[in-house]
Specification:
It is built from 16 helices and 13 strands. By secondary structure, it is of the alpha/beta class. Strands 1, 2, 3, 4, 5, 6 and 13 form a seven-stranded mixed sheet that branches. Helix 3 crosses helix 8.
Length: 475
């Protein structure tokens, strides 16, 4: 008896470890995103065991959280407090998810109501991922279990309807069908039919997402660099550094036809004494090359992390202040005020670094039908690709091009469909300018307009599912 209990306990722990590991690997190697299609199978299997106790399922959820979280925390080298908070938070999330999933499966019965139960489980996973990115949003959507799927933008084009949480719904649905076949091989035919129908639906939504034709195109550029390549921290602000990195990059980009050029987050430090001098300098350059410059800088006087839109005309410059700050960031928070300029007939907006992990601003730009968003960014070595994965989702969800200029990270020009048109890893390649021609769309998306409506639909479905199954079981 004791030996049997030990074996059962080992099964739940192993299932949790396997699921957590398969979920974790794509977050480190994004190309492995398809692994998530089977990542949930072990945990769902133990949830579906008829005689499984919630205490055992909770243990499986805990081990899934540990296997998923600890390797990433070690790799990312986050501060101890953040590491502990995320570890506890994700443990609660995954334990609750596992226990709730077990309840749903037993209420619905995979052997009987396969499609209804699979939809209920998928809905639960969708809601859980939304809670994951919303309740304690240290990194917001970068915490999503679906983040790595940005490596396959054509497959997840449908997320312009559902947002990133729709991807987890899809993955969980397929995983539930796989588990149904493992538990009851006779359900293979039904599961296959449901899977094919789901694939057809996804393909249809992906096709629909790509039918909108662009209204125009423009060549853009992003300047980036690594701070470690310079002899002093303020090298960019010296005459030598400015000419060598910024001015030379602007000349190179304009030779290639770039009309909008972005520099990294806090690339310059302005105070009340030198700010106007720098603005005039950038205005002169913008006028000379007939371009729009989007400059990331730190306002020392007001302690704000800002972006300035500077063109060669005599209009007053527009500025945007960073709204979503990372933990321990020492500057004043912006008020989430949208800032856009129109250049060559194209509206351009801006977010700064961590801002693009949140969908409040990104969706507002989509609703305003802004076709290009500049994202000056400052990363560090171990998070640079993690952050880039998250950034790509904003382009797909909202259908605008992103010009991402990074210091100590990856600069990228991302199409409105999530394709990386040009990129440079400045940790490996140091200072560089990238250029690309982007399509522009003067439209919004379903997600841009209605946000996480799909989460609400999932919540309603689970409520109906519980009522129906309770009535059925009672009867």
């Amino acid at each position: 008896m004791d030996i049997e209990r030990i074996k059962q306990a080992g099964l739940y722990r192993i299932a949790g470890i396997i699921s957590g590991t398969l979920l974790m690997l794509p977050n480190i190697y994004a190309v492995l995103a398809p692994l998530s299609l089977i990542a949930f199978v072990p945990i769902l299997y133990v949830c579906a065991i008829r005689k499984s106790k919630l205490s055992n399922v909770a243990i499986a959820g805990l081990y899934m959280a540990l296997a998923y979280t600890i390797p990433q925390m070690i790799l990312l080298k986050l501060p101890a407090v953040i590491t502990i908070v995320l570890l506890l938070y994700l443990s609660v999330i995954m334990i609750t998810l596992s226990c709730a999933t077990s309840v749903l499966i037993k209420r619905g019965n995979l052997r009987g109501s396969l499609i209804l139960t699979a939809l209920a489980v998928a809905s639960l996973f969708c809601i859980t991922d939304w809670i994951n990115i919303s309740a304690v949003p240290i990194w917001a959507t970068a915490q999503s279990l679906a983040r790595s799927w940005s490596s396959y933008p054509s497959i997840i084009a449908f997320s312009c309807f559902t947002g990133i949480v729709g991807i987890i719904f899809t993955v969980a649905f397929f995983a539930t069908l796989i588990v149904s076949v493992i538990i009851e091989p006779k359900s293979f035919r039904r599961a296959t039919i449901y899977a094919l129908l789901a694939i057809a639906l996804i393909a249809g939504l992906d096709f629909l997402a790509k039918t909108k034709k662009p209204s125009g195109k423009i060549t853009v550029a992003a300047i980036g660099y690594s701070s470690n390549e310079f002899p002093r921290p303020d090298h960019i602000q010296t005459d030598e550094g400015f000419d060598e990195v910024i001015l030379a990059s602007i000349k190179k980009a304009t030779d290639l036809g770039a009309k909008i050029i972005v520099t990294p987050e806090m690339g310059f430090y302005f105070d009340k004494y030198n700010k106007q001098e720098w603005v005039d300098k950038f205005k002169s350059i913008a006028a000379q090359y007939d371009i729009l410059l989007i400059i990331g800088y730190y306002d020392l006087a007001n302690q704000k992390n800002q972006v300035a839109f500077i063109s060669g005309n005599n209009e007053q410059i527009k500025e945007y202040s960073k709204t979503h700050l990372i933990p321990y960031e020492q500057c004043k928070k912006g008020c989430a005020a949208l800032k856009t300029v129109t250049f060559n007939g194209i509206r351009v907006g801006a977010m700064i670094c961590q801002d693009d992990n949140f969908t409040d601003l990104s969706r507002r730009y989509s609703r305003e039908k802004v076709p290009i968003v500049a994202v000056p960014t400052s990363d560090w070595k171990v998070v640079r690709y993690t952050h880039l994965q998250s950034s790509i989702h904003r382009a797909i969800e909202s259908r605008y091009a992103i010009i991402r200029a990074a210091v100590n990270g990856v600069s990228a020009i991302i199409s409105p469909r999530g394709k990386i048109l040009a990129s440079c890893d400045h940790i490996r390649n140091h200072s560089a300018v990238i250029t690309a021609e982007v399509n522009t769309y003067n439209c919004t998306t379903v997600f841009g307009k209605y946000g996480y409506w799909f989460v609400g639909v999932c919540g309603v479905y689970i409520a109906i599912f519980l009522i129906v199954t309770n009535t059925k079981n009672t009867g």
